[in-house]
Amino acid sequence: MSGRHSRLVWIMFALAAAACQPRPEQPAEADIQAARKAAVSFDIRMKREITDRLERGEDSVAVYLAYADNVPGWGLEISNAGKIDFSRTAITVRNPANAPDAWETRQMELFNLLADGGQDPEAFEVAEIVQEGNEKVFRWMRPTVMGDACMTCHGEAVSPRIKLLLGQEYPLDDALGYSEGQLGGAYSVRKVLSVDGQPPPAYALQALPPRLPADQRQLGDAPLVQPVTPVEPQPLP
User: Fold this and answer.
1) Each residue's pLDDT tens digit, 79-97
2) Which of 53, 69, 97, 169 has its CA at a distance of 20 to 30 angstroms from the CA of residue 60?
3) CB-CB contact of 117 with 135 (8 Å)
4) What are the extents of the domains in the chain?
5) Residue 6 and residue 8: Cα distance in Å, rounded?
6) Which has the closest alpha carbon to 68: 167, 166, 152, 186?
7) DSSP readout, 81-135?
8) Which pTM was predicted?
C-alpha cells in the first residue's frame, strides 16, 4: 500500500471514529439568553451609577465608596432575578472571594490568547454544559474590557488617595496596573441543571446586603481617606 493511500485510509478511519463519538450536549438557547441578559443588566447599572459619575468629574474616592457599598448587592439581585449564579471574576483579583475556579481560569486564558492574536474581545463568549461531581451544570462566560473610567481604580497611575483606600480594604490586591482596552476579567454564570440525573433543588434566593443609593454620596463625602497636604520646607534659623 502506498504512503498516500495509507494516509487516506487513516484519515477516513479517524473521521469515521469521530462520527461515532457522542456529540457534547448543547446548552439551551434560553439559558444562554438569560446569561447575556444578566451581563447586560450589570453593564447598564455600572455605567449609570459608577462610570458616568467618574466621567462627570465627581470625586473618585466618593464614587469608589459608592461602588463598594452597592456592587456586591447588584450581583445577588441579578442572580435572584434570573435564578442563576451570576458573578464576576478575573485571573488577577482584588477580592480573593472572587478568584476563578478551574473552568473559569481556562476560559479566561483562552480569551487572553485570542485577544493577543488580534481578535475582537467584544465577540468572545463561551457556553457549555459540564459535569461537576454529581451535578450537570450550565456554564457561561463573557470577558470584560477595561475602559477609561476603570483606570481610576485599576490603572497604572491610580491616585494616592485611592491606593490608600484599596490598601486598607484589600491588602492582597492584585488588580492594579491595567491599561485601557485590556481584558480585565469576565462575567460568569453557573446554573445547576440536574443532580445525579434528577431535577435540581429549587433555587434558593440569596439575602441581599443593606446598601446606600449610589447617588447619596456627594462631592467631598470621603472621610476615610484625605489627600495628603504637602509640608512646606521651613527656612533654617
Assistant:
1) 999 999 999 999 999 989 8
2) 97
3) no
4) 24-196
5) 5
6) 166
7) HHTSEEEEE-SS-SSGGG---HHHHHHHHHHHHHHHTT--GGG--EEEEEEETTE
8) 0.79
